[in-house]
Amino acid sequence: MFDYHVHSEFSADCTVTMRESCLAAIAAGITEIAFTDHVEHQHTDLGYGYYRIEDYFASVRAVQEEFEGQIRILRGAEVDFHTDTYDMVKTFIDANGQRYDFVIGSVHYGDNAQIIFQEYFEGKTADDVIYPYFDQLEAAIRTGWFDTIGHLDIPKRYFPKNLREYNPARYQERIEKLFAALIETDTAFEINTSGLRQTPKASMPGPAIVRWYVEAGGKLITTGTDSHAAQTIGAGLTKTLDMLTLCGIAQIGSFRERERTLVDIASLRSVDAAH
Ligand SMILES: [Zn+2]
Ligand SMILES: [Zn+2]
Q: What are phi and psi of 75, to 5 degrees?
């Protein structure tokens, strides 16, 4: 199985070392892991300026050497995107994009660059949150800078109680425009399993959205746990592969030096069963 969304001590919100995560991943039957630390571009973000790129790459090289032959370790990044920070993100991607195996583009801020946390939702309807968020996501996809798009419907994870009635069917038309952009730019989106262990109790996104994507002709999916702790590495991936298979996705993305290949889920599942 592939865990393509794992944070390490190079993210401000994580203290787990890459070494601890690799040991946990091997124990969980993970065959490929991507360390995708936050690359923040919002000045107000707690993690702004935290990422130390050269130390990050040195740390990946060290675990690649230590665990050679046991697990494939990818150089990854979770790059925060917003149209307000477009030029900064572009500068980062132009300078460093090709140094990675795999780059996730994620939107963590809503309109007016306000953070997607509790105060952001005050006085807003679900539509007030979702539509501007999807506009940002579409802008991120249209750049063509990213291999995959992180946690496609993340607002559902942070919705306060009064907005928890989120139903993706309400946004189907808007989401289908996102799919068109994904397909045109040859960009994947991830199934982020962290939602399974948090409030929404469903992956981000869940099966309804995956089915619409398949109907639209989409084939490019990546899988990741968004782990900030060693014990969640690999969590929910088997369930996710089952869900994808039921939805008509037969393969998932594997990356090396920003080049994608598609791997049969059936072959991964036999690896999983062997553990
Ligand atoms: Zn994220
Ligand atoms: Zn993340």
A: -85, 115
